[in-house]
Design goal:
mainly alpha
Length: 461
């Protein structure tokens, strides 16, 4: 009987995929298809949970099949991240689009990412204090205790590295290894390697122009191929969002989430406030924040469902360049740096909130100015090298809590709501990197304001 029910659930998902395919055939806009997929996934997922229960065998077996579409789509996006980052940054040098003030662009992007992370940490602290969150109020079960032990083991693995050693880890000792994405800092390492290739090209262009011209043609051809792959994969976005959202809503334990509702509300309040800060920054730069919201919502929706800044990178860069008027070089630097530096949600708000919650357990006053200022500084510095995939927030939390001499294991108390909160954190991370790209382009006077303001210039695939 279970087999037939699983087959029925799969058929229902295929039917919804058919609806989205019909919308694409009728040339309905990409944004509308994305939001339709998001809504259908939520309704379908909750319907499955209502009928079978979140922990039922039927749900587990059905979602394994759903993952062929959802997780498969995320893997395809991850497949093109490294080639896209590398070839786009090299092409920025061959087109001389960023080389006139490369140092200024990199400094501005990193400065904006770190500055917004410091603001995010402050907001996280205020949210935790305002909602009077304390770790002692969170129920601890077997799952939470096991998670705490895992975090302690991870802490033992990374505690041997000093901050200078962590900075050295950003460098690409073996670029071919980093192209496989095996390290948490692989993306930044590829960016650095691409920058070296680009600078080498500039040197060759001055002394051996014929070889440089040949290399430029090769780069142009590779870029065209990579961008075509990006377009092909992005066309699958609505289907991926449908499957991912169906799985998330079908398997979420509503009762457990309700028990930690106060923390969930406090977290999302902080995330929304920080997103408002992004909009204020854009407004101060003389740009319409409402236009920004309209154009980036499909990107943020995918980041929300996939919980992966790295998987969202192709959408992130495409939105910046085609819909927001950011030059390709700046967009690639901002998107790539944003994967491992200054993630506002995962490396800013979340560790700060945890530290405030845990501090009273070791008789530390979380309201003292010295504790707050130290925490903001530690969070900002620790935001270097945070992975842009699931687990980045955990890594950031371990770094912050250990530096502040707070018990790392207590972070495991929130395991039951981690996926729900991580969705909002990832969306904020991506918004932060896009904001850095837009503002940097605005400051360097390279932003195409006409494209930014043009209503018809929206993200399409």
């Amino acid at each position: 009987m279970n087999v037939y029910l699983v087959i029925f659930n799969i058929m229902m998902l295929l039917l919804l995929i058919g609806v989205l395919a019909y919308m694409q055939k009728k040339h309905i806009s990409f944004s509308k298809r994305v939001f339709t997929a998001l809504g259908l996934g939520i309704v379908f997922g909750f319907a499955l949970q209502l009928v079978y229960g979140a922990s039922s065998t039927i749900i587990q077996q059905s979602t394994q099949w759903f993952d062929i579409v959802g997780t498969g789509y995320v893997k395809l996006l991850q497949m093109i991240v490294m080639p896209l980052v590398f070839i786009s940054i090299v092409m920025a040098f061959t087109k001389l689009s960023v080389t006139n003030h490369l140092g200024k662009i990199a400094t501005l992007i990193i400065g904006l990412l770190l500055g917004t992370t410091a603001i995010a940490a402050s907001i996280g602290i205020m949210s935790a204090l305002g909602f009077q969150l304390e770790a002692v109020d969170i129920p601890s079960g077997e799952a939470e205790q096991m998670r705490g032990q895992e975090l302690e083991q991870k802490y033992e693995q990374i505690q041997t590295l000093s901050f200078p050693q962590k900075m050295i880890e950003l460098l690409p000792a073996n670029p071919f290894l980093d192209f496989t994405g095996q390290r948490s800092t692989s993306t930044i390492a590829v960016v650095i390697f691409a920058a070296f290739v680009g600078m080498a090209y500039l040197g060759v262009a001055r002394k051996q122009p014929e070889q440089a011209e040949m290399f430029k043609k090769i780069v142009d051809a590779l870029y065209a191929i990579v961008m075509r792959i990006v377009t092909l994969v992005l066309r699958l976005t609505p289907y991926g969002i449908l499957a991912i959202m169906s799985r998330i809503t079908a398997t979420s334990d509503v009762n457990t989430i309700a028990k930690l509702g106060k923390f969930v509300v406090a977290s999302y309040m902080a995330l929304f406030v920080m997103f408002a800060v992004h909009l204020i920054i854009l407004a101060l730069a003389g740009l319409n924040p409402i236009t920004y919201i309209k154009k980036v919502l499909p990107v943020l929706s995918f980041a929300f469902t996939s919980r992966s800044s790295a998987a969202t990178l192709p959408l992130n860069i495409k939105a910046q360049t085609t819909a927001l008027g950011v030059p390709e070089g700046v967009a690639n630097f901002a998107g790539s740096f944003g994967l491992s530096i200054g993630q506002n949600g995962c490396a800013g708000i979340y560790p700060a909130m945890l530290a405030v919650m845990i501090a009273p357990t070791v008789n530390i006053d979380p309201t003292s100015p010295s504790f707050i200022l130290t925490l903001i500084l530690v969070v900002t510095i620790s935001s270097f090298g945070v992975a842009g995939v699931g687990g980045g927030a955990t890594f950031a939390a371990i770094l912050v809590l250990s530096t502040m001499n707070l018990p790392v294991a207590l972070a495991g108390l929130l395991i039951s709501v981690e996926p729900l909160i991580d969705m909002g954190r990832t969306a904020l991370n991506v918004s932060g990197s896009m904001t850095a790209g837009i503002v940097t382009s605005r400051i360097t006077k390279e932003l195409n304001v006409h494209v930014y303001n043009e209503e018809t210039k929206k993200l399409e695939a």
